[in-house]
Design a protein that fits this description.
By secondary structure, the chain is an all-alpha fold. 76% of the residues lie in helices and 1% in strands. The protein has a single domain, classed as Growth Hormone, Chain: A, CATH 1.20.1250.20. The chain has a two-stranded antiparallel sheet. Helix 11 runs antiparallel to helix 16 and helix 13 runs antiparallel to helix 16.
Length: 442
Amino acid sequence: MSELENAPPAQASTPLPGPGGRYRWTIVALLFAATVINYVDRQMIGVLKPTLSRELGWSEGNFADVVFYFTMAYGIGYLVFGKVMDVLGARTGFAASFVIWQLAHIAHGLASSVTQFSIARFALGIGESGNFPAAIKAVTEWFPARERALAIGIFNAGSNIGAILTPLLVPVIALNWGWRAAFVITGIAAFAWLVAWLAIYRPPALHPRLGARERAWIGQDGDIGLAKVGWSQVLRRRETWAFALGKFCIDPIWWFFLFWLPGYLGERYGLDLVSFGPPLVVIYLLSDVGSVGGGWVSSRLIARGMSVNSARKVTMFSCALAVLPVLGVQSVDSLWLGVAIIGLATAAHQAFSANLYALVPDIFPRAAVGSVTGIGGTAGALGGMCMAKYAGFVLDTLGTYAPLFAVAGLAYFAALACIHVLSPRLNRISPEGLGIAPGLAG
């Protein structure tokens, strides 16, 4: 078809001179820090679940409802902020998203009922949904295709650092000043990031601290993405649905681990607010290895001459295999063996996720990256809503996590199957293939 560029992207072609600078990694550091904050704020309700359930009388269904409304808002916001990032750019769009989610996070400290928590979580979901569309947009602006999976893996590792910090930081605050103070203190402190973001971030073409050689390295793929792309232009592409269905399958599994894992460790192994901290730290440290390692592996395979299609899919298939042992974790009596199995699964998830996110800039012009990422995030949130209701039903009626781990163990094969059927070659779509005039596409 004429709109497809069947040749591999630039990362597999003629070698270029070195990048001549490392300022783009400063941008990744900012994105990493924002993702750490995002996941501290997101996971706090999971860490505080035993305390909130005891003090406020929550059932598993009540907790599932609170998670459900967060996930619903996250899906709505992801779609909206995906478009916002394409229209306003990463700098302004990310700043707006951050302000919304921090105010909503602080508001949790004022809530007392399931309804009030649901409202606060809904607002948090709207704000937090801007993190990944903005970060993917920023990586697309600041990195050539050959480095994007690694850059995504690095900032995505912030989710695991946030998940590590939460069970270490939050119990200290909650035990000394109460759970309400945990929301307020962490929310106020986080605004330091916003100051740094607004001071440092600019698009590469406008950044005064970026050298000419590094700017040329960043722009080596030749797509500067000046045009705007509508949802109708990307929704008709099978590649959009490949990404969206992949997100629908795997995002609910990560949120299951994030929100229900502290409760599972408490019920299965008798841990409490203080003692489940070390096991969670180990699990999310392993996740960090997976996040960076997954991006590194596929980037390395591409650098050695493997096609983008093969490198991404081989890496994702290996990740799906690594999740399989979680199918039997419910029957494991040893705490640390259970931690190792779950940690392997979360590491594989993050490696799979880094490569899934990388598919968007692999396939689409820069002008479409935010919109496609937003559509995929919304699909992932829809899956998360289903998982939240399913988890609440299973735990209230059956009282066992085994069916939930069964879904987790098989979801990644389903995701990869959807991706391969809908985009068997991961052909890159030219700007003209989305109806963008060549002059506007750069």
